[in-house]
Write a structure and sequence with these properties.
By secondary structure, the chain is an alpha/beta fold. About 55% of the residues lie in helices and about 15% in strands. The strands form 2 sheets. It has a 6-stranded parallel beta sheet, with helices on both faces. α7 links the parallel β4 and β5. The protein is elongated, with a radius of gyration of 36 Å.
Amino acid sequence: MSAPSKSIFRKFRRSLLYLAVVFAICVGGYHVYGWNLVDSVYMVVITMFGVGYGEVHPLDDAGKIFTMFVIVAGTSAVVFVIGEVIRFITEGEIMKAIGELKKSKQVEGISAHAIICGYGRIGQILAHELAAAKFPFVVVDLDDARLALAEESGYLFVKGSATEEETLQRAHVERAVVLATVLPQDTLNVFITLTARNLNKQLRIIARGEHPPTEKKLRQAGADEVVLPASIGGTRIAHSIIRPATMEYLGDNSALMNEELKKLGVEIDELRLHKHTHLVGKTILELQNLSEGHLIVIALQRANGNILRSGFLEENLQTGDSVIIIGRVHSLPPALRGEVDREEMS
């Protein structure tokens, strides 16, 4: 709860306490006057709330003077509580409006930013990474609960459907440098891509696709890059099965890194040594020399799981070791390439 909200709540609680104290004093006064508890409470209620019924019992002058006190004190307490209730509601709405206005002004001044369409699981991870890199961004979503999460994290957001031009314009798509549409529905991602491309021809658009056939449609709609989470996840698991040492060495970025390296004509691979290979007993340096400059060893994982990341050039290869390499595996000399193929098949 924010400081202004706490202040409003304290005032509201104080008004209820004042009403309770006045009510108790008035009931106690009639009780002392000789009335039973039920009659005392009944008299205070009809007097404080101005019902207008007659006295429960005949009153003398002292009783009338006390009843006038009950009317003044009780009515003022009730009015005080009602006023605080109204203030509690109106000020809460005003504070909310002020908060939204501040957010709106911050969004107004943003430029060279990213727009994240959809704040689900992928959108939240994306926002976290961009925030860590201090890259400005705006979240666009329709769901109040998800937007509340974005607000708690301190992220700028625009409420609305990203399929509508007006929503993207409020996120200043004309000043953005990249838009990522990561909704789980392919049809919505296609429509958002098409809408964003029409609003900003220079915008870089990254779209999520759930089904591989959708990639073609997304690119036709104007997406510069299409990411298929299911394919990436499957590839990641396959790499963990096929190249466990590489995955442990590089972590979650290995698949993405390997794709980038392939564009340069090289790739990261893993060679596992069994007892029948002639590579056992040779040093890492000898292995690199055998490759005639077509590969570089970047790490060595021993059979016991220990990974050597440096100072391993003079280390002798042993059965069960895994060698993590980077290079042009298909350009290796025939003798070594045949050996590598056997290692990968074993």
